[in-house]
Specification:
By secondary structure, the chain is α+β, with helices and mostly antiparallel strands. It is built from 8 helices and 7 strands, in the order E-E-E-E-H-H-H-E-H-H-H-H-E-E-H. The protein starts with a strand and ends with a helix.
Length: 253
């Protein structure tokens, strides 16, 4: 997520160029999600999502400006609209500064010539999953997630949690792990069975993230696999869970 803050240091120190006649409309495919619910901030940031799926965090003033941009209002009209919404006086030069210096570099507005913005590729941090390959596309993920979303109803979660604790307690304290471990040593081919179960459980685990996303009302993205450092892993794109409340995001996590 990209964090864009706006403070008094963001305002231009000198005179701005003369405002252009009309302001641009938002870029094609831009989705205005709204305030981030349960963010923990005294003033919640707002979220927008570009056509490439990148979620961007902006201030309420920039969000209000994006909501007002329709390609027909000039900077004088936008200044009046934003002044009413923000409760402080804004000049056309201020609007032009916000449009050209704050919004356009984020790739949420078309280029000055009217073409679609050149979107900056997402950064690839050291600990990111690399060599990603999709197993399920977003549409297929959502259909499969809908099948398992009922598992997140409170009653079902309580019943399954109690059953899990009971089985784990029986395995650890009554049956014990010594006998299964000894059998595994005598039958090393069982390691292949265990490996298969581990892979299956990891795949089902990712469906759990997608189902939680679907249960909360967000749309899960693709499910795939890649390399985390040197280990093969599964992953699920749950970027859309940012639109959920704090409880919804916690459920997805």
């Amino acid at each position: 997520m990209v964090d864009v803050s706006l403070s008094t240091d963001d305002w231009p120190a000198g005179p701005c160029p003369e405002p252009v006649a009309d302001a641009a409309a938002p870029a094609t495919g831009l989705e205005l999600i709204g305030p981030m619910l349960g963010s923990g901030y005294s003033t919640p940031p707002c979220l927008v999502r570009r056509a490439d799926g990148q979620t961007i965090q902006v201030t309420s003033l920039l969000y209000a400006l994006l909501e007002s941009l329709d390609g027909t209002l000039n900077h004088h009209d936008l200044a009046r609209v934003l002044s009413r919404r923000a409760g402080r006086l804004l000049e056309p030069e201020d609007v032009e500064f916000l449009v050209e210096q704050r919004l356009r570099p984020l790739g949420v507005l078309p280029s000055p010539d009217g073409s679609e913005p050149a979107l900056t590729p997402r950064r690839s941090p050291l600990l990111a999953i690399r060599l990603r390959k999709a197993l399920l596309r977003p549409a297929a993920t959502e259909r499969v997630a809908a099948v398992f979303a009922w598992l997140y109803s409170p009653l079902v979660m309580v019943v399954f949690s109690i059953a899990f604790c009971a089985v784990s307690g029986w395995l650890l304290f009554d049956y014990g792990l010594a006998s299964p471990t000894r059998e595994l040593l005598y039958e090393p081919t069982l390691i292949l069975v265990i490996l298969g179960l581990v892979i299956a459980s990891a795949a089902f685990h990712e469906l759990g993230h997608a189902a939680a996303c679907r249960y909360g009302g967000a749309h899960p993205g693709r499910i795939g696999f890649g390399l985390y450092l040197v280990w093969p892993v599964f992953f699920t794109d749950v970027t859309d869970s940012y639109r959920l409340s704090r409880g919804g995001r916690l459920r997805v996590d």
